[in-house]
Amino acid sequence: MMKRILLLLSIVVLVMSCSSPGWKVEGDSLLVYPTDSKTKVVKLEPFSETVIRVAASAKQIVDSESLVVLPKEEKVNFEVKEDNNFVYLTTKSVQAVVSKASGVVKFYDLDGNVILAEKDDNGRIFTPMQMDGEKAYELQQVFQSPGEEAIYGLGQHQAHDMNYKGKSEELFQYNTKVSIPFIVSTRNYGILWDNYSLTRYGDPRPFDQIDIFKLYNSSGAEGTLTATYIDDYNTNNVYTVREESNIDYENLETINNFPEGFKFDKAKITWEGEIEAQESGSYNFLMYYAGYTKIWVDGVLYAERWRTAWNPSVAKFEIAMEAGQKYPIKLEWIPDGGESYIGLKALSPRTDAERDDISFYSEMGDQIDYYFMVGDDIDGVIKNYRAITGKAQVMPKWSLGFWQSRERYKTQDELIDVMKEFRRRQIPIDNIVQDWSFWKEDDWGSHEFDAARFPNPKGMVDKVHDLNGRLMISIWPKFYLGTDHYNQFDSQGWMYQRAIEDSIRDWISDGYIGSFYDAYAPGARDLFWNQIKEKLYSLGIDGWWLDATEPDILSNASIKYRKALMNPTYYGSSTKYFNAFAL
């Protein structure tokens, strides 16, 4: 404690005796006002000797509380100096240099070596926009990336990318897709991009439909590919053949464009023809799929994938193409039963320099806001990331053992019998998971076990404990219309209403109408916990699986409609806060 007191007493902000025109030290931060830039102010705020927050605005800095970064606990020693062209902020470990003219920021070690630099020309972009009555900006910040580094991070994605050097990823929260706008480099630095809207790492452009190419059908006629719809792959019976200029059946809206009356249970569909590039270079392709899917270009099989129908994924591949040359293409798709999804998109080439750049683009925000951090190694960078975003709780010892989980256990007896059978066979087990639908069919959100199938929930939990096990349960932020818990939220204005207004029914039986609660509202989070505490925590349940926090109000809806379903949030437009719900 005495050492901590002495440390706090010794922390001082060291600056020149007076600020020069164009910059000033205010509190714990350096503010620079560029003279020749669309950036009106750049703020540098050291969070530690090795972490510096950078905020840049086309108007003025907004110091709202971050939903990701913890409040800074103590001041940090730093020194500010200037020369004719730059302002220098130096801590004991790192130096940030800001151009007085452009506001561009570069980071150096104390030996004068560049660690990371914002790009000089057009590396920071503010594009005015307005959504739901809120004025804001589309934002992009580009950094120079040396050729020898590898880049990791961005969360959990399914397209087989590990090293994101020269790669791109669209960051949005979805089932099995976890988007974390943080990267770490083998050059021992990290960047946390503090924005909650849909974000793109790498190429800021959305993928285009394949009609960016000249298309030729199976007969060589220009304008389309030939789509052959077989409704029974056992007999190869052709239901219809038609010409299509794009392959876009990626969500509940676009699948309505399939041929009317076509059945998918035993279907096989192929798209065939040729594509011709408009310019030479490396094209990036994105195949969206559910079911068994293969794609060939110029005779090369670029992807062969399978995915269950209700949870599509993507495959990425890259092809160097010459302008004016035709490339045979074939996409073969066997849907996974009834409702299935498929799509193929592409992006035109970028320059090698653009591909090598590190870029973060976000759809909506007040300002550019990121945290630069360094370490002696990658572990040191991750230590800084944990320090500013919060350290994960140490998991209990039992959770490090074997977990038994399936789609769900439908009765209390079934769950206990499985637990007993593991013990009888002397197979080690530490945790058994009760997934969804333990409630009455029409009572989603009640957090109450269906008494007909689970007559004694407390006894069930106790029996698992008697068998030296633990029980985890799945809970959702979802409530059926008219249930007691729904009404408690709705009376406070804490239920998202669009799903109710549109009478969206889920997949249970004939479908029930419900929605999700607005977890951005502090009072709503308190109410959610109190309901769970009364109905479930009191039973002695050991572990909590918070499911569907995308929020998955309607699976396989377009992103546009997903935003509409969770709008407005407690904080404002769902466009602005689209990726933060899972927090």
Q: What does the radius of gyration come to?
A: 27 Å
Which residues sit in consecutive blocks of at least 5 with pLDDT less than 50?
Answer: 1-18
Distance between the termini: 33 Å
Q: How many H/I helical runs?
A: 9
Strand content: 35-45%
DSSP, total strands: 37
Describe the global form.
globular
Which descriptors apply to this entry?
single chain; eight-stranded antiparallel sheet; disordered N terminus
Describe this structure in words.
The protein has 583 residues and is mainly beta. Helix content is 14%, strand content 36%. The chain is built from 9 helices and 37 strands. Strands 1, 6, 7, 8, 9, 10, 11, 12, 14, 17 and 30 form an 11-stranded mixed sheet that branches. An 8-stranded antiparallel sheet has the order 2-3-4-5-31-16-15-13. A hairpin with a 5-residue loop joins strand 9 and strand 10. The longest helix is centred in the C-terminal third of the chain and has 14 residues, at 522-535. It starts with a helix and ends in an 18-residue tail after the last helix. 36% of the residues are buried. Mean pLDDT is 94; it is low at 1-18.
Sum this structure up briefly.
This protein is mostly beta strands.
Task: List strands and helices in order, with pairings.
Layout: H1 2-10, E1 13-14, E2 23-26, E3 29-32, E4 41-48, E5 51-57, E6 78-82, E7 86-90, E8 95-99, E9 105-108, E10 114-118, E11 124-131, E12 134-144, E13 151-156, E14 169-171, E15 178-185, E16 189-193, E17 199-201, E18 208-209, E19 214-216, E20 225-232, E21 237-244, E22 247-249, E23 268-276, E24 281-289, E25 291-297, E26 300-307, E27 313-321, E28 326-334, E29 342-347, H2 352-356, E30 358-365, E31 368-374, H3 378-389, E32 403-404, H4 412-424, E33 431-434, H5 457-466, E34 470-475, E35 478-480, H6 484-490, H7 498-501, E36 514-516, H8 522-535, E37 543-546, H9 559-565
Parallel strand pairs: 1-6, 32-33, 33-34, 34-37
Antiparallel strand pairs: 2-3, 3-4, 4-5, 5-31, 6-7, 7-8, 8-9, 9-10, 10-12, 11-12, 12-30, 13-15, 14-17, 15-16, 16-31, 17-30, 18-29, 19-23, 20-21, 20-23, 22-29, 23-28, 24-27, 24-29, 25-26, 25-28, 35-36
Helix pairs in contact: 4-5
